[in-house]
Amino acid sequence: MSRNDEIATRLEEFADLLDAKGVEYKPRAYRRAAENIRDHPAAIEGLAAEGADTVGEIEGVGDAISSKVVEYFETGDIEELAELRAELPVDMEALTAVEGVGPKTVGTLYEELGITTLDELEAAAEAGEIQEVKGFGAKTEQNILDNLDFAREAHERTLLGEARPYGERVESYMADVDGVEECALGGSLRRWKPTIGDVDVLVGSAADEAVVEAFTDWPDVDRVIEAGETKASVMAGGVRVDLRVVVPEEFGAALQYFTGSKDHNVAVRNRAIERDLKVNEYGVFDVSDVEDDDQRAGERVAGETEEGVYEALDMAWMPPEMRENRGEVEAAADNDLPDLVAESDVRGDLHTHTEWSDGGNSIAEMVEGAAAFGHDYVAITDHATGPGMVGGVGVPDAELREQLAEVEAVAEDADIDVFSGVEANVGEDGSLSVADDLLAELDVVVASPHAALDGDGTDRLVAAAEHPDVNVIGHPTGRYLNRRAGLDLDVERLARVAADNGTALEINASPARLDLGGGAVKQAIEAGATVVVNTDAHSPGNFEQVRYGVHTARRGWAEAADVLNTRDADGIREFVHE
Ligand code: DGT
Ligand code: CA
Ligand code: CA
Ligand code: ZN
């Protein structure tokens, strides 16, 4: 964590506590300052050393905040913040993880009922105490109860998009350590699961203790949880990282084992038993005439490479994303594995936002960003007005026509193809928030649900998919990982309708969503649908998140031909105008 991040986090905590106390306006100023400091190119500790005036030159950072920043770097804390913490000794992060519970609610519940933790929140809700508090009702109380478990679990798992950068950093750091012959990520991170319990790193080396020591010296480490001879666990940036060191001869077997998933491993082990073989983290062993239950007993037939482990079981090697026991063991045995889509197959993005709605950049900047990332084309799909488009971020139809003219002007000078478009809201009844004649004028129409995201959403999305001008169903379930589960969907039925109507189903690559997820993607493709991997970029920096979507597509066994935006610009034109 950079020191800019560190102080920004403190200022956000400040804002939450002020909110909880019912203070107006100030919290927003603290949040804005936090954001600007976090994004500021210069190191904040350097500016703070020059004094409050220098810190105050950052946009949105006034006198009160700049002096607190200086105080923090001089004394290691902010007195006023410490006082607020003492006044409101609540576990803000855990409590606000419950959907519908914000800092203000936390403040009220502390004042009225003394609630400081999730357990106390649950007890109060179960006892019916929350509905008695002014401003709350039975419905709010039930909502809290419904969302509590989700918040608890959520609290323990990290988003793939947050964990992956740490994983890749530790992997490249460990690969350079003396005596390390091989190094790889394992576990859910290697399978690109949307959320991660912990990061698993595997090293093949004979010099185990020195390797463990180098690992605990990794500069990102905040705290060492445990360190033994061949394994260690640390916390880094809020993520737990587990290291295991094995001898190079057993690296392949260990990698296969620690990649998982558990269910995949069980299926693999059963296949081994049928062949009088035993597979474990040390290797594959022929146990046809072995009584001994020693882990390494029997003749060792594989273990140095992962390919070798699968080969010994008469299976083809399969990409880690597939290892969820969804039929991949059978497919690998039949040599019938799909040729999965790769990051480099993707040629454009069909879902992006600009400052016309809630994005941060102009149309021209987003187009340049897409070109710089290497795309051949990009669609500009700002939010249209509609329910759930809070804060007036949606663009009304009249303005969309103006925007269309600007998109066309930018397109003339652009190095890549630029498609006009919109992200229309899909209402609860399946209706769209944009007039039909306007939809017909745009190249790419994304239709997505944004509100009323519980219960079954199949009819609603089927109606949208049947609309003649809708090309993409955006983030179909509307889920927010760790926050809300989103709509229930009969994916097969939706996918059949989408296929019949030339509508693609989105894999939204935003790490907060990854929607559709891998299991649903597999069902959708089996039912004949085309998917499209979009970032929903709100700034040019978001384009690189496409990889999370591509690996989600791979979790759904997608081949390049299943993914709309592996086609060239003419291929997209054909798809949307058909
Ligand atoms: P996570 O960390 O909860 O996101 O999920 P994983 O899959 O990374 O699980 P983790 O870190 O507990 O263990 C890493 C891998 O090690 C796991 O995917 C499969 C393997 N593994 C761990 N415990 C067992 C076990 O009891 N049986 C089997 N067959 N495999 C296991
Ligand atoms: Ca793990
Ligand atoms: Ca682990
Ligand atoms: Zn969007």
Layout: helices, strands, pairs:
Elements: H1 3-20, H2 26-39, H3 44-50, H4 52-55, H5 63-75, H6 79-87, H7 92-96, H8 103-113, H9 118-126, H10 138-156, E1 158-159, H11 160-175, E2 182-186, H12 187-190, E3 195-196, E4 199-204, H13 208-216, E5 223-227, E6 231-236, E7 239-246, H14 251-259, H15 262-274, E8 277-280, E9 283-286, E10 299-302, H16 306-312, H17 328-333, E11 348-349, H18 363-373, E12 377-380, H19 397-413, E13 417-425, H20 436-441, E14 444-448, H21 458-466, E15 472-473, H22 491-500, E16 504-508, H23 518-526, E17 531-534, H24 546-555, H25 569-577
Parallel strand pairs: 4-7, 11-12, 12-13, 13-14, 14-15, 15-16, 16-17
Antiparallel strand pairs: 1-3, 2-4, 5-6, 6-7, 8-9, 9-10
Helix pairs in contact: 1-2, 1-8, 9-10, 14-16, 21-22, 22-23, 23-24
